[in-house]
Design goal:
Elements (H helix, E strand, L loop, with lengths): L1 H15 L6 H13 L4 H17 L3 H17 L3 H15 L1
Helix pairs in contact: 1-2, 1-3, 2-3, 3-4, 4-5
Length: 95
Amino acid sequence: ARLVEIYVLMGTLCGLQRDDGGFVFFEQALQLAAITDASPLLHARIFSEYGSFKEHVGTAEEAEGYLERARRIFASLGAGDEARRVEHKLVKLAG
């Protein structure tokens, strides 16, 4: 889980710098989370940050897909606060 978090942080940093190459870190985080049977909560957090990354690098349609996926997982887990934060991102993205 620690390495997954590091990948997400590195991807997030790339997004803030508008470096679209940061997608590699999110893809690695997702692969590692899958092979280590990470919790659905961790998957949702990866999708949420990946969505934000996609928004920063200018791919709104992809951002919406990742954010929607995160929102569904958070909602299914009863993580209302997290689901609302993602919903806010989706509304902002829709503009």
